[in-house]
Design a protein that fits this description.
There is one protein chain. It is built from four helices and 13 strands. Strand 8 and strand 9 form a beta hairpin. Helix content is 24%, strand content 35%. It folds into two domains: 98 residues, Alpha-Beta Plaits; 110 residues, Alpha-Beta Plaits. The strands form four sheets. Strands 7, 10, 11, 12 and 13 form a five-stranded antiparallel beta sheet that branches. The protein has a four-stranded antiparallel beta sheet with strand order 4-5-1-6. A two-stranded antiparallel sheet has the order 2-3.
Length: 221
């Protein structure tokens, strides 16, 4: 996982364009073939995920990126170190950049994140809360389909995604002015290490390259 922090002007009004800015900056560095999705029966799955948070109090941007391809993280690291990672035309100061290995050999993780699932009717999206049964069923189905699409085989073994808690109020994310609604939640995921590392590196649910679906590991006492 690539971890970096930037300092920008705290007065910038960039909250609604963060996903576009950072997706564009990432794709400017990565080779064209790394932009594409993996397809399975018409469904598309990304092999990477990112999270970006802008603190308007101190002007610090926290950016994290993960990928199933280690070279993606290394290429972004080099670009950041050489000051060629361009966040639009925003002037910034790089405060920190490093790569952390968080792969697991266990069969259980606890994680947090803004995971997205929605249904569509008459071209209108309805975003579901993690506590709903439809969300739980479809997030698991989506993960199994992603595993099959990327590894070219069906997943075998135990696989459970349990919601431990969910914030009451949702957060709005934006990509090309379109809003996405998601609820911050904590999950317990039980699976083999291949599946767990797949989700840690490529995200959970929809929009993993649009600033949602990124998973942060947490310790549960």
């Amino acid at each position: 996982m690539l971890v970096s922090k930037f300092k920008v002007s705290p007065t910038l009004k960039i909250s609604k364009i963060l996903a576009e800015l950072f997706q564009g900056a990432i794709y400017d560095i990565l080779p064209k073939e790394r932009h594409d999705s993996i397809n399975l029966n018409g469904k598309k799955f990304k092999e990477s995920s990112f999270r970006v948070v802008f603190n308007s109090y101190d002007g610090v941007i926290d950016f994290r990126f993960t990928s199933l391809c280690d070279e993606d993280e290394k290429n972004l690291l080099i670009a950041l170190q050489n000051n060629v990672f361009s966040i639009g035309d925003i002037k910034n100061e790089l405060l920190e950049v490093k790569i952390i290995n968080r792969d697991t050999d266990k069969n259980e993780i606890f994680c947090t994140g803004y995971v997205v699932f929605y249904t569509t009717k008459d071209k209108k999206k309805s975003f579901l809360e993690p506590k709903t049964q439809t969300f739980k069923q479809n997030i698991k189905r989506n993960s199994l389909q992603k595993y099959q699409a990327i590894y070219k085989k069906e997943y075998e073994g135990e696989f459970n995604i349990r919601l431990l808690n969910q914030k009451l109020k949702p957060k709005f994310f934006y990509y090309k002015k379109a809003p996405t609604v998601s609820w911050f939640a904590t999950y317990q995921i039980e699976a083999n290490s291949d599946m767990l590392n797949l989700l840690l590196r490529s995200g959970l649910g929809s929009g993993t390259m649009k600033n949602t679906g990124f998973l942060d590991l947490v310790d549960m006492l």
